[in-house]
UniProtKB/TrEMBL annotation:
Protein name: Phosphoenolpyruvate carboxykinase [GTP]
Keywords in alphabetical order: Cytoplasm, Decarboxylase, Gluconeogenesis, GTP-binding, Lyase, Manganese, Metal-binding, Nucleotide-binding
Residues involved in Mn(2+) binding: K228, H248, D297
Catalytic activity: oxaloacetate + GTP = phosphoenolpyruvate + GDP + CO2
Self-association state and partner proteins as the record states: Monomer.
Cofactor(s) needed by this chain: Mn(2+)
Residues in the signal sequence: none
GO molecular function list: phosphoenolpyruvate carboxykinase (GTP) activity
Domain Phosphoenolpyruvate carboxykinase C-terminal P-loop: 244-598
CDD domains listed in its UniProt record: PEPCK_GTP
Positions bound to substrate: R91, Y219, G220, G221, S270, N388, S389, R390
Residues at the active site: C272
Native organism: Pendulispora albinea
Biased composition (Polar residues): 1-7, 389-398
Amino acid sequence: TPVSPTGKSPYPSSVLAGPSKVPSTNPHLVTWVNEMAALCKPDRVVWVDGSEEEKKRLTDEAVAQGTLLPLNQEKLPGCYLHRSNPNDVARVEQLTFICTPTADEAGPTNNWMAPKDAYEKLGKLFDGSMRGRTMYVVPYIMGPAGSPMAKVGVELTDSIYVVLNMRIMARMGNIALKQLGESNDFNRGLHSTLDCNPERRFICHFPQDNTIWSVGSGYGGNVLLGKKCLALRVGSYLGRKEGWLAEHMLILGVESPEGEMTYVAAAFPSACGKTNFAMMIPPARFKGWKIYTVGDDIAWMKVGEDGRLRAVNPEFGYFGVAPGTNLKSNPNAMRTIARDTIYTNVALTSDGDVWWEGKDGDIPNELTDWQGRPWTRKGSTEKAAHPNSRFTAPMTNNPALSRFAEDPEGVPISAIIFGGRRANTVPLVIQAFSWTHGVFFGSALGSETTAAAAGKTGIVRRDPFAMLPFCGYNMADYFAHWLEMQAFITNPPKIFMVNWFRQDKNGNFLWPGFGENMRVLKWIVDRARLRVGGQETPFGWVPRAGDLDLSGLAISHEQVDAATEIDLDEWKAELESHGDFFKKFGERLPHVLELQREMFLARIETL
Ligand code: GDP
Ligand code: PGA
Ligand code: MN
Ligand code: MN
């Protein structure tokens, strides 16, 4: 179909399918795309197919527009740099809404807008928003193709950056149209960057309609709609309705020297160590042990026929934090991002390489900072890379990718770990006494805010299950759902709480973290397999003296003691804070959680 040279076409935009025709006969899909095109009024509608040829064409166009900057192709083949608008560098929780029919359904931890108001308000912003632009139709699958757990979404966007990132983060293009067939069961996502004005920025979720509308941002977490919006917010709602769990969790496999494989899922808030833990390389002491990555951010879990919890990673790539990533902390990530990677808001070296705070080697004397300004080691006070600068890389680049990462049935989970970023209070590791006690751990999780979301960093807040920004319905009902799942999981994973981020009085981390976290993981695996002891305390089980393998560890035993210490006064304050948080939910909070808190307090008070 011809596109007129003036960009004004006599044809309805939906028939202008770029190089190809509309590649779907699905009436639900085609009708919806037409409706959204009539609203946004793009000059062209292009259905993406996911081919290599298309990737090249869109990449060239993005480079011509200045959206992507080619990096040194000898050092970093297939890699590009994107600089976002400086006002648009993280998720915006204040501008994120759950649009359920009633405010109660969204609950006290979410922003709520009535669906009708949200459609109206955003509809006005979308009206004509794509004039002079192209609307890309991006069909994608979250989850392994053909998996009973997979879901299809279609994102309409006017951003080539979004298309190219979605291509890495999800199975995208014709493969998704094929999976969808003529079904009406797909997530309807609409995105326009508009003029990237925070005054006109809204991320709205309509769980009942399986619909997401996102305007005014170009930042990953706000606009790659398959990820946080579908796989977590809408996903958690669908999970409750359909009897499964959508979680902010990495999934890894631990293989022992004997070849025994144990799968673990772990929920840490954004920028609290999921990607690093999922790709960890054990220290030399653990010869023959190997970690395999299934996923680094999101887990969809259902109960298998064997009564075990089975997890799939709905994503296809990693959208990871760049600062702090180096050959020592995360060698697998460094290898993963050496090719075919889109970098966002990192610094640039004079020879077209990327740089960020905490990268290997000497700090360069001169750089171009994340905003494209000259930066010098001696003269500049600001960071060269944004603290939330990111890489988008295909998971297939990961040398430690699990060969079960695409298993349609998912991997069986033996342990679930909750962890936050806490300078004090929370010790290195504790095991919950039971599923209910573990759900209490999750519901009361606290963590310091990080650069992954706009706003002040370093403030402790309750971030239950690391899902505070991602739960698509009333968090009290989410807790109830976790408690109810117990009845169906006849062979439940053991539940743990960890903290890699405890500090000494000078603000230094007590625990070396990264690969050394293997020492804690080994104890967790052995506990899950019922072959190592634990010391019973009022808090839960902790490793007995000698249970944690500390041989070859570069830090002193005093330091380990400080990292594992439990301070009663700190815990009394902590439990008060849990109580304040629980009060938000009123009568809707499952009573058993408040009971867990009171029993905990009573156990401490007898000490
Ligand atoms: P994610 O956003 O949860 O995936 O977190 P990442 O794995 O990307 O890590 C976020 C930041 O925390 C990075 O700067 C990491 O270098 C740092 N980090 C990750 N794991 C550890 C750890 O075990 N100890 C310490 N001190 N920092 C860590
Ligand atoms: P993260 O993912 O958890 O790896 O930081 C992005 C986010 O949560 O915003
Ligand atoms: Mn995340
Ligand atoms: Mn991550």
